[in-house]
Amino acid sequence: MQLSDHDLGLLDGVGGDAARQAMEALVQLGEAYDAPDMVEIGYAHIHAGMALYKGDVELIEATAQGGAKMVVPTSTNITNADMGDWQGTGAPDTLGLLQKRAEAAHRAMGSGTSFTCTPYWAGHWPTWNMHIASIESGVTVFANSVLGARSNRDGFFAVYAGMTGRYPRFGLHLDRNRQPTHRVTVTAHPMGTAEFTALGYAIGLTVGSGVPLVTGLQTRPSLDELDAMGVGMATSGGVAMFIVPGVTPPFNEDADVPGLTEVEVGEADLAQIFDGFCTGDETGFDLVHLGCPHASFEEMKQYAALLSGRRIAEGVELWVTTSRAVRQMAREAGLLAPIMASGARVVTDTCPISCHFACTCSPDPALGVKPPSLRTILVDSAKQAHYVRDMIQCPTLFTTSELAVESAVAGRFLPRNRRNA
């Protein structure tokens, strides 16, 4: 790799031992991918330190204690506990207190303690053509596609990038890898985030880790719908970037791109995704979950309107998950009151697939984590449905946001595919 004087200085310890170790790791990453040099990053979304794995928190603490400091604006990803009210979600004190230790370490490093999978709704908004690093696949696909920034799907290397402001130039940091590989013609008419997650999920199943050029959408998707479509693609496939002509930057909608693999996604494909994730007991769901990815302020307005003056059915729990920043905005706008008056719970920092519900994570026995016995979780997101199956090993029901709320109020499942029957 061709390293700059700045890079070499970091390797020589000019920025301290922690930065030296981080730079060494980034050089190894770059050499593994034949990167020609390093790029300057302007933002990093990094690993939070997951309390279900005590060693993971200790790694974050050791990084902070070693003198690590973030040199670019940095946000933190989702955690294993709502650090403001873990008791309310049923998590043990041992888990919540351990997660708070990771929070303290991040503050010492200068990380923005957002603890969310949607830091863009919390104000972290990288600009067009900015190189960034991100541990979260949803952040990566949103940044590449909607904002025009440049990011790979990273792991802990995002922490090292935040500590150095550097990252190897490979993958989607190179122009040649940001070209479409598939032309996806959408003949369905998705509306709302749930249907857009299903659309994205259907696309990801077909294109894998390609870059889909999505055409045929009848209306311009909202930011929330673009977000939902991206996380759907990133969940079923390895998609880290998509293109919607005239919507996402920069792409000439009249450009002729020959040789693309042709794909069509219709209403039957969306219906198949919804039906495929409906395997749970329609009258015995324990939890209804809204907010995957973490809800935006606009979605909080929608949930408040849907729940205003209503009450969740007895025996049903409803979680709305969002970031700390969006929750505060919602509180100040008077949106939390109608949501919570319905009996719903507003949860931050975590979500069902990242909290103590996870039963496949082999947590430290000393934490005393005993996942509840869950029969079925009802969701409005293909991403959440996918990971509830994998990480909680729990049956799911999948419907739209509106029908999820109606189901929570009625105490019985109202499926999207039978709404007009």
Short characterization:
The chain is α/β, with parallel strands linked by helices and 421 residues long.
CATH topology of the largest domain, anyone? Aconitase, domain 3
Mean pLDDT: 95
Helix and strand string, N-terminal first? HHEHEHEHHEEHEHEHEHEHHEEHEH
What is the total tally of β strands? 12
- β content, as a range? 5-15%
Strand order of the largest sheet: 10-9-8-11-12
**Sheet/helix structural class:** alpha/beta
Ranges where pLDDT stays below 50 over 5 or more residues in a row are: none
- How much helix is in the residues? 25-40%
Reported CATH architecture of the largest domain: 2-Layer Sandwich
How does the overall form come out from the CA principal axes?
globular
What is the alpha-carbon Rg in Å? Answer: 21 Å
Summarize the biggest pleated sheet.
5 strands, parallel
N-end to C-end Cα span: 61 Å
Helix segment tally: 14
Task: Assign the CATH class of the largest domain.
Answer: Alpha Beta
Count of discrete structural domains:
3
Pfam family, one: AcnX
Protein name: Aconitase X catalytic domain-containing protein
Domain Phosphomevalonate dehydratase large subunit-like: 1-401
Keywords: Iron, Lyase
Can you walk through the features of this model?
With 421 residues, the protein is an alpha/beta fold. It has three domains: 5-175, 2-Layer Sandwich (Aconitase, domain 3), CATH 3.30.499; 179-274, 3-Layer(aba) Sandwich (Aconitase, Domain 2), CATH 3.40.1060; 277-411, Aconitase, domain 3 (2-Layer Sandwich), CATH 3.30.499. Helices cover 38% and strands 14% of the residues. Strands 10-9-8-11-12 form a five-stranded parallel sheet, sandwiched between helices. Strands 1, 2, 3 and 4 form a four-stranded mixed sheet that branches. The protein starts with a helix and ends in an 11-residue tail after the last helix. 55% of the residues are buried. The model has no long low-confidence stretch (mean pLDDT 95). Pfam families: AcnX. Residues 1-401 form the Phosphomevalonate dehydratase large subunit-like domain. InterPro entries: Acnase/IPM_dHydase_lsu_aba_1/3, Aconitase_4Fe-4S_dom, PMDh-L-like_dom.
